[in-house]
Amino acid sequence: MELLAEYGLFLAKIATVVVAIAIVVTLIVNVAQRKKQHKGELRVTNLSEEYKEMQEEVAVAFLEPHEQKAWHKEQKKKRKQEAKEAKARAKRGERAAPGKSKVYVLDFKGSMDAHEVGSLREEVTAVLAVAKPQDEVLVRLESPGGVVHGYGLAASQLQRLRERNIPLTVAVDKVAASGGYMMACVANKIVAAPFAILGSIGVVAQIPNFNRLLKRNDIDIELHTAGQYKRTLTLLGENTDEGREKFREDLNETHQLFKAFVHEMRPSLDIDAVATGEHWYGIQAKEKGLVDEVSTSDDLLLTLMKQHDVVSIRFAQRKKLMDRFTGSAAKSAEGVLLRLWQRGQKPLL
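^ Protease SohB, sequence as received from the core. Prediction below:
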């Protein structure tokens, strides 16, 4: 028994040391993260070069083994010569000749709360810092909409490009509805896949009320407010006709703002005809004037690569350790909520 007691004490000491080390390591990591000024990093990828490499890789695959060997040898020699010439130009103080104009590609896959706007803000700022007058921006957009203030801010980020006279194209392969379309309509040109979903220029809100259930169980709810319309509809209290009317007024006001914004961005639209809350597929959306061209983003990129250098700009946010564990569960829950909503509702703002 004495031996077991000593062994248990030894294990307890070891566990204490391990826990202490873990705490120290965690503190060091947290301090290091706090010292970093940025909450993420900007990733730049040359999509034109990637496509060119893919072309070459496929072409070489059809060559005979001895031909492949000769091709790789020639490419190695060519790259070595190019590097030598670049080094010589640098020594002479010569600047490289200006290349093709650039197309900066941003990706926005929006959630209901539009939290991705944080990354979009950084990406737009990065583009504005380097873009030349001849450059363009392509946003590959996918979103069924969400909260008004979130998507309003996202649309405002794209407006920064438009205000600087940088040609902006939005490509929609799957869905840009409601808040998603609020973003898309900022573009000078909207391109949509044939069966992409667009439109849903409307506002929707629903709220459950448990007041009758609480009354049946003799549970009272007290709600105190300062301001006549501080609360219109509630989850637990008894809703009034006056509160319902005010709630509907607020929805209508938001809808009018939405319509005015879309009409300002695309004045040729018959706004009253398309702002019914309905959504349309790409081909139908073109007939309605909601989009300018029917095509996939892939074909659009291939066309742009013929005359431009196409570069992807992506701001990757650093996640805290706890967020890495909880983020996946939150994303799954959001997906379930969105699917349940969309079974009976159109994409929402």
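Residues 203-270 form one domain.
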